[in-house]
Write a structure and sequence with these properties.
Elements (H helix, E strand, L loop, with lengths): L4 E5 L9 H15 L3 E5 L2 H10 L3 E7 L10 H11 L5 E4 L10 H6 L2 E3 L6 H19 L2 H11 L20 H10 L1 H5 L17 H14 L3 E5 L2 H13 L5 E5 L4 H10 L2 E5 L19 H10 L11 E7 L6 E3 L1 H9 L4 E5 L32 E6 L1 H4 L7 E6 L8 H11 L6 H14 L2 H31 L8 E2 L4 E3 L6 E3 L5 H6 L23 E3 L3 E5 L16 H10 L6 E2 L3 E5 L6 H19 L4 H4 L1 H6 L1 H4 L4 H15 L1 H10 L8 H9 L3 E5 L12 E3 L4 E4 L11 H15 L7 E2 L1 E3 L6 E6 L38
Parallel strand pairs: 1-2, 1-3, 3-4, 4-5, 7-8, 7-9, 9-11, 11-12
Antiparallel strand pairs: 6-13, 10-17, 12-13, 14-18, 15-16, 18-20, 19-20, 21-26, 22-23, 22-24, 25-26
Amino acid sequence: MAGDTVLFAVREHPGDDTVGAEQLRRIRKELEAGGFAVRWAGTGADARTVLRTEAGLAAVLVDWGLGSGGAPGGADVLRQAGRRFQNLPVFLIAADESLEELPLWVSETVVGYVWPTEDTAAFIAGRISSAARTYREAVLPPFFKALRRFDDTHEYSWHTPAHSGGVAFLKSPVGRAFHDYFGERLFRSDLSISVEALGSLFEHTGPIGDAERNAARVFGADLTYFVLHGDSTCDRLVGHFSVTRDEIALVDRNCHKSVLHGLVVSGARPVYLIPTRNGYGLSGPLPPDEIQAGTVAARIAENPLTRGALSTEAQYAVFTNSTYDGLCYDAVQTARGLAASTPRVHFDEAWFAYARFHPLYAGRYGMSVGPDTFPGPDRPTVFATQSTHKLLAALSQSAMVHIRPTPRAPVEHERFNEAFMMHGTTSPLYPMIASLDVATAMMDGPQGHWLIDEAVAEAVRFRQSVVRIGRRIEAAGDRPAWFFGIWQPETVTDPASGERLPFDEAPAELLRTDPSCWELEPDAEWHGFPGLSRGYCMLDPLKVTVTCPGIDASGRMADWGIPARVLTSYLATRQVVVEKTDSYTTLVLFSMGITKGKWGTLLDALMDFKARYDEDAPLDRVLPELVAAYPGRYTGLSLRELCQEMHDQLREVSLVQLLDTAFQELPEPVVPPQLCYQRLIRGGTERVRLSEAAGRVAAAMVTVTPPGIPVLMPGEGIGTPDGPLLRYLTALETFDRRFPGFRSETHGVTLDPETGDYLIECLCRGEEVPRAALGDARELAVPAPAAAPTTAATAAPAERP
């Protein structure tokens, strides 16, 4: 395997001609002749740096006496090797020590001992290289190992895909450019399901089946399925399996639109559970009272769609964990709360696949709900769907479904696999499967904890640095105050001493290891979410929300402000692309790929933005492309003037509060979502302007993105002109007109190309189903297509945003 490296953590012997030093140099030469690279670290600090940064190590040779003055610095190196790698072969040089004098834990850490002068250099190097090659072969997980072996056979391809290992691309100039860009190995590994040696994704056999079973072990599931179309497909798959037509599904209104697409596919009747929101406009968790049996029963009873349901009992519940802004639940407490109302609970963990691998998140993820944490017959079957590619190391669209079934709601593989095949493909991309297999192997054992712990440590450093900059500027007193913040507790408690510490003064080790530092204390001002109980919800330190001035967590607006859309536009000019932008907050994600250089660049960009704001820089210097695109609107403005104009607009129309109200005061359900889809396909819908939408029934969801949460579902009434939904959408429409270049991304809304008016899809007047008909939706027939709409807005489809 190319790139194998052996680390010699051995004291330097410059000019040393002793027999032992010469023998170590001979061992090094033998290993290099055998194809290994050798890294020589003469101090404990250097050795630990190599262990931290070099993932290609295949073996380590450690001098027990490494360190200044002959102190046993080798002990620290041995400990770090054990924390960083699983089963890495470590040999201890013990030339001057008796084995009986070494601590007992050493023998559990090393695979062997080396007395350099007692065997030949060739023999010792042979022992090391043999252990190294065995380790490197064992590192490979099942499917990736089989794929490499198949690639090594160099067989001719007589099956799909037609590019035949990339050969077809070489017959065309553009194809050759494509081949050269990605390299031959990608195309040689793009194979057909006809390759029996690699197993079947649909039959879950061979190396693919082995890889899924290995993932189940690593992620703590009973069953795991690889999905190649992202967490969106996982959500649709689980929903399609768990609930059928005219059965009730309990749905967190904070769910991603893919969950709601699953309701359309299955024909389920949704009953929405309402999450909390704070003054920033951030979506919070479902409060504990919202998931209790009495509240759920009341929600079901008051929902018009449940009158024709097959049963008044919900068959399925789904909620987001962690939320898009990093709020994660006490999983067992949440499962217990919902278990009284449904036998199946789905944790949508698209952004949370790493939770099992760090003690900070203990008990906060779906697969932590099992017979040991929730014993007895009431435990529901638990599903967890994860976008493995989002925050673990896998290729885009790579995802997994994890399941812990119970007798209360059995999951028979053969039946679940029918749903799986409906949403899968018979032409899977094998590199994607391999990436899921490798992502699993990367998290197996101590290395998984190491990788997530490093990301948490960097997130903590960034969070504290932002606060410290503010304190330094305040102490200097030579410039305007720092105005960026991080959404996090202002103080934390050291459980050892009981002392309350400012966040930036708390030991990084405490913040990195103690979950209590991140828990949302009931009614704490910093988070702004009502109705939470102690320990119920925790902020994920890896999801960092930068706050801009203008509003606080309680929703109080200031006289001046800096809307986050202006900030993120500036960051884009610095090649800093954020995950999500709200009115006064922007979200950045810390993952295994984060480095000090990466977050340092972000910090520098924030400081530069502040400097340009303080000096009131002309906008054409700060956002030149914006001014060039809309010269009539922005020429002559300064950065500070743009920020204030936008802040005044947001404050005047109360956009943040309107969005909050739209999410809290849900529209009235009129017809099931699936019926609206039928009308949409068969011409029973039309696009109308917001000014004409009052009293109509939505035929398609309207989704604010990112993060992709619907404010309006198909089958829901749009309400009155002064109702929360139309007031919010009208305010958004007005904002988009006034600030071109900052337009909102709202799925389900199209634009009139001539006027810029918002258009939304509604049921045609004659297609709306009377509420009385909801007594039994199974009796509703799909009517013939309606006559073609005659309004200008519906004469031709508007261009999609």
